[in-house]
Specification:
CATH topology of the largest domain in chain A: Rossmann fold
Largest sheet of chain A: 7 strands, mixed
Strand content of chain B: 5-15%
Largest interface: A-B, 43 and 51 residues
Structural class of chain A: alpha/beta
Structural class of chain B: alpha/beta
Number of strands of chain A: 14
Helix content of chain A: 25-40%
Low-confidence stretches of chain B: none
Number of domains of chain A: 2
Largest sheet of chain B: 5 strands, parallel
CATH class of chain B: Alpha Beta
Helix content of chain B: 40-55%
Distance between the termini of chain A: 59 Å
Oligomer: heterodimer
Number of strands of chain B: 7
Order of helices and strands of chain B: HHEHHHEHEEEHHEHEHHHH
CATH architecture of chain B: 3-Layer(aba) Sandwich
Bound molecules: thiamine diphosphate, magnesium ion
CATH class of the largest domain in chain A: Alpha Beta
Number of helices of chain A: 12
CATH topology of chain B: Rossmann fold
Shape of chain B: globular
């Protein structure tokens, strides 16, 4: 059975299904239950935006509220994962990663390799990413490139409810540490989602739209900007292929290369800061491996190299827009300066 | 003239009342305007907690630094940050204290010694150790005060900073603003020991607990601790037990609180009512004098909102400004 549900509900459902299936799955985080020790209602919050709401009623003590000590509880989730549990630890905003990053990149990410392949750390760290919430510089970042930079971490960033459910289920079953990035501005976004359990394998991008003229690659919220741009371009007879990466580590190079070899043009849209991000990574890979197929310079659409500004007037300019994506596509379609010279 | 039983002269007492009323009015107004949808982003209100910021900040000058929290409006006002600039910042205007780049959670004014509200729990404590270290090197008697909530007091940064301040003998005061809750979670559950004094003792710091709704209690305890730090006596911890009148942030339904809890706190533990009572009972201040201040404060906040709404938004060129000093 399939029905339309929001990404927030889909995440809740994935957690519920995996907790039912596997008794080693536990959840922890700040106020993921809420009201602990307080005189009023139990299960008062279910997370700051209600993503885990109702799970306490179903799974009780397998949900652990934590003191405000990310270093300690994220580290504890990692330690428990190395000892047979499958913890899903919520870091309310991924921006708080700064407080506990050592446990993730020096500990969780290293165990398997550094211990000669003898350790497994099946932990999921899930939390909110992205701008557009008027939440300012310390609650709005898209820090995905920090995570993809680290060998040993898997990195997931869904663009819709269907993918969020299947990818979270896969993340929980995966035996490596997974950073699961939830765009806060997609929580309310609804798609058709089957009620039953299903897993979406890592490293398989989703081609959302076929097209022969240009390839647009993105992930997370900006996938929707890319689709809007593709619709606008189609009115001008430019057919864009839109690829939603879904997982950033591992990344589906084959789908990207196959597409660029057909279209000859590439636009990468990334909400992360522009230096050393997914856009530069993908551009470099394509330049190295499919240079001969390119008919035009690769275009990258990103925010400017600034922190996320608070004021709505600035934040709206900060986030890559559909217009910016369409403009980038048009740049790749324009005759190259050399051919202009020849003419 | 009645005798003044308090260690502050009348002008200072009226100033304390004015500061507390300004904070309250600022927050009450935000509460209303947020519900109307006028204000973007997250807003955490300091209403109910005014005596703490005010009682402490009266001992400080612009050369003393404070590091604030996500619930920073009260600290800003008490430290002398311009109310018009604060309001404009919260409205995201280019006339704001941070030119609209920061918003409610990041209001700062370095010229007033206000090193910023902070969106990262516990982040202020190490920073204030640095501020105190700088003051020590300058030798100008400056002190650093860091505020931390009961919840954020569990951050490693806060605990490490107490140790560092003790080891380096820094002029730092760690103020724990204990309002009983961290978001929806009770302090009694999340903090492992009964008293913050035990934690301070563990790090070799003197600790004092006061009723944070009693302006005089806060003022007196803070005065002693700050004087000691200024004179080279080293760091200390001050715990203020206080009450939060609104939700964790605006929009919080607060079902985790007991029925009638907030009403009872407003009736019995309103630090402003308590101060007004003590001032008028003793006859030092006439009720009419307080009413005059109330009217002036209302007019100030009204004007701040009017100016904020009329002020220009930042423009495209501002987006790229101030990332670096030079690049
Ligand atoms: C490092 C970090 N973790 C979590 C949060 C989310 N958060 C913001 S305020 C808050 C509760 C703070 O409680 P407390 O320290 O008691 O301060 P209060 O809100 O009561 O003033 C939480 C969990 C954050 N901003 N930063
Ligand atoms: Mg608190």
């Amino acid at each position: 059975m399939s029905r339309k549900i929001s990404m927030k509900t889909a995440i809740n459902e994935a957690l519920d299904l995996e907790m039912r299936r596997d008794p080693t799955v536990i959840l922890m985080g700040e106020d993921i239950v809420g009201g602990t020790g307080a005189p009023g209602e139990d299960d008062a919050w279910g997370g700051v935006l209600g993503v885990t709401k109702g799970l306490f009623a179903k799974h009780g003590d397998r949900l652990l509220d934590t003191p405000l000590s990310e270093s300690a509880y994220i580290g504890a989730a990692i330690g428990a994962a190395a000892c047979g549990m499958r913890p899903v630890a919520e870091l309310m905003f991924m921006d708080f990663m700064g407080v506990c990053f050592d446990q993730i990149f020096n500990q969780a990410a290293k165990f398997r390799y550094m211990f000669g392949g003898k350790a497994e750390t099946p932990v999921v760290i899930r939390g909110m990413v992205g701008a557009g919430f008027r939440a300012a510089a310390q609650h709005s970042q898209m820090l995905t490139p920090l995570f993809t930079h680290i060998p040993g971490l898997k990195v997931v960033c869904p663009s819709n409810a269907y993918d969020a459910k299947g990818l979270l289920i896969q993340s929980i079953r995966d035996n490596d540490p997974v950073i699961f990035c939830e765009h806060k501005n997609l929580y309310g976004h609804e798609t058709e989602v089957p009620a039953e359990s299903y897993a979406i394998p890592f490293g398989e991008a989703n081609v959302l739209r076929d097209g022969d003229h240009v390839t647009i690659v993105s992930y997370g919220l900006t996938v929707h900007r890319a689709m809007e741009a593709a619709d606008a371009l189609a009115r001008d007879k430019v057919e864009a292929e839109v690829i939603d990466l879904r997982t950033l580590s591992p990344i589906d190079w084959d789908t990207i290369i196959d597409s660029v070899e057909r279209t000859g043009r590439l636009v990468v849209v990334d909400e992360a800061h522009p230096r050393c991000n997914l856009a530069t990574d993908i551009s470099a890979f394509v330049a190295q491996n499919a240079f001969g197929a390119l008919k035009a310079g690769i275009q990258m659409v990103t925010p400017p190299h600034t922190p996320v500004p608070f004021s709505p007037s600035l934040e709206d300019l900060y986030i890559p827009s559909a217009e910016a994506v369409a403009a980038a596509v048009r740049r790749t379609m324009a005759p190259s300066p050399r051919s202009t010279l020849a003419a | 003239m009645t005798d003044n039983p308090y260690p502050l002269d009348k002008a200072d007492l009226l100033q304390a009342y004015r500061t507390m009323r300004t904070i309250r009015e600022f927050e009450e107004r935000l509460h209303i305007d947020f519900a109307k949808g006028d204000i973007p982003g997250f807003v955490h209100l300091y209403a109910g907690e005014e005596a703490c910021a005010t009682g402490i900040m009266m001992h400080l000058n612009d050369n003393d630094r404070i590091a604030s929290t996500h619930r920073g409006h009260g600290h800003c006002i008490a430290k002398g940050v311009d109310v018009h600039e604060m309001m404009a910042e919260i409205y995201g205007r280019s006339t704001g204290a941070c030119r609209g780049k920061g918003g409610s959670m990041h209001i700062a004014d370095l010229s007033k010694g206000m090193m910023g509200a902070n969106g990262i729990l516990g982040a202020g404590a190490p920073l204030i150790c640095g501020a105190a270290l700088a003051a020590k090197f300058r030798g100008d008697g400056g002190v650093g005060i860091t505020f931390v909530g009961d919840g954020a007091s569990n951050q490693g940064t806060f605990l490490e900073s107490m140790n560092l301040a003790a080891v380096w003998n820094l002029p730092v005061v760690f103020v724990v603003e204990n309002n009983g809750y961290a978001e929806s979670t009770a302090m009694e559950w999340a903090v492992s020991c009964d008293s913050y004094i035990d934690r301070a003792t563990g790090f070799g710091l003197p600790g004092v607990t006061v009723d944070g709704t009693d302006f005089f209690a806060v003022h007196e305890a803070a005065g002693e601790i700050i004087r000691r730090a200024r004179e080279g006596g080293g760091p200390a911890l001050l715990e203020c037990n206080m009450v939060r009148f609104y939700g964790h942030f605006e929009g919080d339904a607060q079902t985790y609180r007991a029925k009638g809890e907030v009403e009872s706190l407003r009736a019995n533990r309103d630090c402003i009512k308590l101060l007004a009572q003590r001032l008028t009972e003793t006859g030092i201040v006439a009720p009419a004098e307080l009413e005059t201040i109330d009217r002036e404060v209302n007019a100030l906040i009204e004007d701040a909102v009017r100016c904020a709404k009329a002020a220009p938004l930042p423009v495209a060129a501002d987006l790229l400004k101030d990332v670096y000093v030079a690049y």
